[in-house]
């Protein structure tokens, strides 16, 4: 029987690429998003939903995989959506016999405290909540982990990507002098949720070495 995944925030960016990756591997995907669907595939269904404000729909059937990706940045609702909305979704869909994995898309900001205050706080909270979920979901033999991307080449970051001056400043702070693509983050998500069976309660930093950048002065 094909695996079933619920993924929030599938209309664009990282969430959309994760959905496409899972669909390409024969996994049935349900997307929850405040925007209309952008994926056309026979094994994809889309539900319009504000995870922080709307009533969450009943599952079409129990999900094997839950991926919490939906989020906003510097919106005035960062904690409400990124943290509280993520908790609402997880508490409703994750805790049942048959669940295999839960994944949270956090952010490098949750570790470093950089970027906007409420955004950094919301993502730090997501990472802490992921560990709480790992403790509670272990009885099902399931894993709970998070990915913390640094810069990713998405529309959300167009302001930096499209500015030669800002882009140079960012690259000067990044060891590998590049950002990740949404497709690469999707590969990580597939590995952590489907291939992985033994890693749980872990946050994986994918930032091209930005947090590790250090200038030695002598």
From TrEMBL:
GO MF terms listed in the record are: oxidoreductase activity, acting on the CH-OH group of donors, NAD or NADP as acceptor
Q: What is stated as this protein's family in its record?
A: Belongs to the short-chain dehydrogenases/reductases (SDR) family.
Give the superkingdom in one word. Answer: Bacteria
Database matches in CDD domains: SDR_c
Give the matching InterPro entries: NAD(P)-bd_dom_sf, Sc_DH/Rdtase_CS, SDR_fam
**Which PANTHER family does this one have?**
SHORT-CHAIN DEHYDROGENASES/REDUCTASES FAMILY MEMBER
> What is the designated name of this protein?
SDR family oxidoreductase
């Amino acid at each position: 029987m094909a695996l079933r995944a619920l993924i929030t925030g599938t209309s664009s960016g990282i969430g959309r690429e994760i959905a496409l990756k899972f669909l390409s591997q024969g996994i049935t995907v349900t997307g929850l998003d405040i925007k209309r669907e952008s994926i056309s595939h026979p094994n994809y269904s889309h539900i319009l939903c504000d995870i922080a404000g709307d009533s969450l729909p009943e599952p079409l059937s129990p999900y094997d995989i839950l991926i919490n990706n939906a989020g906003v940045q510097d919106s005035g609702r960062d904690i409400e959506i990124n943290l509280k909305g993520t908790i609402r979704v997880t508490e409703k869909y994750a805790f049942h016999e048959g669940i295999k994995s839960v994944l949270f898309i956090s952010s490098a900001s949750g570790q470093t405290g950089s970027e906007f205050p409420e955004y950094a706080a919301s993502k730090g909270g997501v990472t802490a909540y992921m560990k709480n979920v790992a403790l509670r979901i272990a009885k099902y033999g399931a894993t709970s982990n998070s990915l913390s991307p640094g810069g990713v080449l998405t529309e959300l970051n167009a302001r930096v990507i499209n500015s030669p001056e800002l882009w140079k400043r960012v690259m000067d702070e990044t060891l590998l002098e590049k950002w990740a693509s949404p497709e690469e983050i999707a590969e990580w998500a597939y590995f952590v949720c489907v291939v992985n069976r033994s890693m749980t309660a872990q946050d994986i930093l994918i930032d091209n070495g930005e947090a590790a950048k250090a200038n030695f002065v002598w």
